[in-house]
Please model this.
Amino acid sequence: MAVSYRNGKNNSNPLLKFWQERRGDILPPLVGVLLFLAVWQLIVAIGLIRLPGPYQIWEDQRARNLILYPFYDRGGLDKGLALQTFASLTRVAMGYGLAAVVGIALGILVGLQPLANKMLDPIFQFLRMVAPLAWVPIALVALQQNQPAAIFVIFITSVWPILINTAEGVRQIPQDYINVRRVLRLSTRRFFTKILFPSALPYIFTGLRIAIGLAWLAIIAAEIVMSGIVGIGFFIWDAYQQNYVSEIIVAVFYIGSVGLLLDRGMALLQRWIVPEK
Amino acid sequence: MSSFVVVEQAGKTFPLAGGKEYIALKGIDLEIAKGEYISLIGHSGCGKSTLLNMIAGLDTTTEGVVTLEGQYIRKPGPEKMVVFQNYSLLPWLTVHDNVALAVDEVLGKLPPKEREEVIKHYIHMVGLDHALDKLPTQLSGGMKQRVAIARALAVRPKLLLLDEPFGALDALTRGNLQEKLIAICEETQTTAVMVTHDVDEAVFMSDRIVMLTNGPASNIGGILTVDIPRPRHRLEVIKHPSYYSLRSEILYFLNQQKRVKKLRARKVAVVPRHGLEKVNLELGFVPLTACAPLAIAQEKGFFQKHGLDEVNLVRETSWRGIADGLQYGYLDGAQMPSGMPMWLTLGGLGKNLSTVTALTMTRNGNAITLSRKLYDSGVYSLSDFARYLKETPEKHRMGVVHPASMHNLLLRYWLASGGIDPDRDVELKIIPPAQMVVDLKAGSIDGFCVGEPWNFRAASEGAGFTIATDREIWDGHPGKVLGVREDWAIAYPNTHIALVKAILEACVYCADPNHAQEVAELIARKEFVGTKREYIQLGSSDLNACNLETPMREYAHHLFYGTNINRPSRTEHLWQAAQMARWGDVPFPRNWVEVAERVCQVGVFSTAAREIGLSEITYGKGAIHLFDGATFSADNPIEYLQNLQIERNFTLAEIPLAVR
Model:
């Protein structure tokens, strides 16, 4: 007669089990954040910097409202931070999407055609060095409107890493695969879908991941300069004008979080599409 | 032979930094017939892959043309499908999809269902049905290469090109895959060109093996035809009589190339000293009793005595090594079969390499040995042998050491005088001396003519018996001579005289019966002949030495020194030229008086002999008398040739002479 035993651990609470397994991953960052807040509070308390500490921010009525009600909308520019962030993200999505399309296309061209590379490389290297903020006045003059100008700034900032990495990825296609193409006389369509894209994909994703960070940096810079639009960049600028320092800090927290999430999301996507060998 | 692929005077030059250029390949001529399997073999960096890529169209020629069915090859295409060394499978596609990529592109006109059948068929052919949906990363090296082969064959190429296809595989996998590929190629009648550095692989798989010389400016050093019948199976192939000779031929070639490369890298400085133009000499010899004068000159200090301080004796295993050493210039001089200076001069290597001799080092010392099987069948004489050949229809092979050696000429002469055609009634094979007894024991030859100690050894070991010694055919025939290139002799005249003096003194030493014991012990050593002391017989008085049961033949005597022995003889060299022309090996020189004058450097010999006080040794200039009663005089060799019974059609040619 057989008696089946159950492992004792299997019986316990799944939440507890999760905690037991991932404790090492969760605890240190949590402690780190708490330590950071404590040091900040301390520095403010001894008067080393003139910013409000974490406690003062929570005490501040306006700031607390921003934290508690991210989705309020009183019309015009007076919106919750989540909505402000969402507006900025929409701009990023448009500029970044355009940059991805143009960057990958141009990158393939430059990677495949040494002549095109020779012609365009100096121009790319020159434009790449222009800071995002320097593009703002040019964009405003050229496009006359805030919205397209903002999208353009994001585009022009994030297109370079995509373009350069794609070109490199195309150049790095192993000669063996190129020989397969030549020997089989593969059609361009098959070459792109079966060889070029799969082979260059890791490089393209590296470019995309660098670019998303840059795009997010650029949108804040661009919105600060462009008055009168909904967006987290202008929200900061507006708060500064009215000396709501606590509001700025809450907004900065949003910016940082979104940046982090974007990068992690991109990394996840990369791991999903380009499995590591 | 209908030419399917033609490579004509093809060359490839790569530009280097600084405006220079590197000539990788030069003057490649190759014709490949439909259905042939060709291997390209050579050392790393010899340009074999470049040649393959030129045929594939992946690389362009900078000179000459490559055609496939009369069409210029300018770019790659699926009709010339390539199997790459590192498989070149796309890692993101499954086995099926990798093959499908090729099939869909190339056979796109077929309906999808048929294409699917083709894909499945070829994957099945390489035995990978179970791995259809696996990614290449999940496969072993051998399996990956099988996929690559399936992909290549599935597009039904006219020509299959393989770049070291099994190079990265372990030995066991490689063997299996070779058999598989060869079976597929035989079945589908595919024409294939394969780059390899594996000698056994080349012999096993190919119809012809193209051997490439080392770069820069590599070209084809030789093409071997593999006469092993198909279908081939590994175990049967290694038993085929040609297998080991092909194998050793390739190894010899590769080894030779290595030495040429070393020589090029060395940049030997010519060391002049003591009023001699060059005292650092590389002298070649072949392990035979007849190398005694060279061994003695080295060991007894005769070279140093005459100012040649840095003489190095180079042990070659075959006469071919000697000829190549002279040809490529890594030997200054060498012990040679007496016919070789004339043979080289008349174009035995395919070009006229003017070679001279000023000293005959030995005479006699050769014999003809037949295998024990023939003795047991009652073959005791030449006429018995002729009768035996008529009665036994199978092919009989006999070994000689070199086309230009006295062994070949004497054996042919002996056979022909007995009414046996040496080319039609038997087959003469070139085998290195030291390998004769082994081949005789193995039964791959029925007899041989070679210098001592190998006849004696065959008899001692009961493998064969001496049916005729050279004393019966031509007593006192020239055996080995000292040969140097004519341009060498012109460049270093005093060195040449000193060399002749040193070796001549060594000959005197060897001829002294009091030294026989010492000489025999010396040359039995490993660095010279490398055999048991008992096998070395010099001027043996034991007349019973060579037989199986009862005394049958007199033993062959080496003659090292004496009247009529050391001075080079024009008549003898002309006799040898006539014999070589008789068998169609080289043309007979129309300007034979001048050629004989050149090849025999009597003046050098006389000077050397006089300077060491041996001026009394002379040479009788009479005609040559052979055992069959025929005489040969130097007055009219062409008439002599015309009156011979058994001969190939000889040709006459004007031999260019070097300008002094």
Observations:
- The first strand of chain B starts at residue 3 and ends at 15.
- The mean pLDDT of chain B is 82.
- The radius of gyration of chain B is 29 Å.
- Chain B touches chain A at residues 56, 58, 75-78, 80-82, 84, 86-88, 90-93, 101-102, 104-106, 137, 155 (CB under 8 Å).
